[in-house]
Amino acid sequence: MIVLYRICLSSLSLILTIAFWFNSPAWAVSNGKSSDIFNSALEHVRQENYQQALIGFTQVIKQHDDLTGAAYSNRCLVNLQLQNLPAAEADCNVAVEYDSENTEAHLNLGLAYYLREKYDLAIAEYQQVTQRTRHDYRAYYNRGLAHYALKDYRQAIADYDLALMSPNQIADEQKTRIYNDRGLTHMMLKNYDLAIADTEQAIKLKHQNYSAYFNRGCVHHRKGDYLAAIEDFTHVIKLNPDVTQAYINRAVLHHQLGHSHAALSDINIALQKYKQQGNDLTYAQVVNLKQKLFYSQPSLFA
């Protein structure tokens, strides 16, 4: 049996937190210049002008006043947005040293650890948050992603469950991510019916959620329901034609069903897209897949 070229598409979107500190007592005792720069940097964050925000928070840090800890915390967030991961980790560690009760700094430090594949350290940061407040769904969800990365799927599901049970208000966008990732995790445990239920809940919350359709297509494939899988990958392509992997997965499914022309068409579209993207490595991998699908002996695919 041919397996999909790749299997699944996690949302992989940990929840970032911005420590705005509008009500911090630091405002009352910091000098006016520092406060103005800090406020301006926050505005740059809102407008996603991260380089300017980085400059602003760095200027605040150089003032060495009572806004310094908050500036480190927010500069950590900015460095995360800019993918300056070692700098983000360092900044959040300093922010935590300034204020060990800074929940947002612990959450963002956990994210920095996660993105640097330091999963055990990420889990430890989220554990500190859950010990302080048992209702912060962000910590449970992010911890679940770290457990997933460690292939501890059962613990990941337990964390996703805790996130969804939080009495705090959770926006539909965040619920969609949690259901989608829990569905993906159920699939890894071969709990296919539960996986489909979760991905369908994600789709219900957000009809344009192509990643949920993608993951449901993967589940249908694993269950052997190839036509349903093809339908899901077709939905993905309609919602986001740039998800080139959907063409490849659909090509493999068409090939399994003996739809040679449709399979070849999808493979060629994928090759064209990867060539346009300048993705030479993946292009070569798909060329190899095409060779195996259409020009190798059938016995190779038994």
Concise account of the structure shown:
The protein is mostly helical and 302 residues long.
Could you walk me through the main structural features you see in this protein, from its secondary elements to its overall organization?
The chain is an all-alpha fold. It has 16 helices and no strands. It has helices at residues 26-29, 32-46, 50-63, 68-81, 85-98, 103-115, 119-132, 137-149, 153-164, 172-188, 192-205, 210-223, 226-239, 244-256, 260-277, 280-295. It is globular, with a radius of gyration of 23 Å.
Highlighted features:
302 residues, globular, disordered N terminus, mainly alpha
Order of helices and strands: HHHHHHHHHHHHHHHH
How many beta-strand runs? 0
- What kind of sheet is the major sheet? none
How many individual helices? Answer: 16
Oligomer: single chain
Q: Quote the average pLDDT.
A: 87
Topology:
Elements: H1 26-29, H2 32-46, H3 50-63, H4 68-81, H5 85-98, H6 103-115, H7 119-132, H8 137-149, H9 153-164, H10 172-188, H11 192-205, H12 210-223, H13 226-239, H14 244-256, H15 260-277, H16 280-295
Helix pairs in contact: 2-3, 3-4, 4-5, 4-6, 5-6, 6-7, 6-8, 7-8, 8-9, 9-10, 10-11, 10-12, 11-12, 12-13, 13-14, 14-15, 15-16
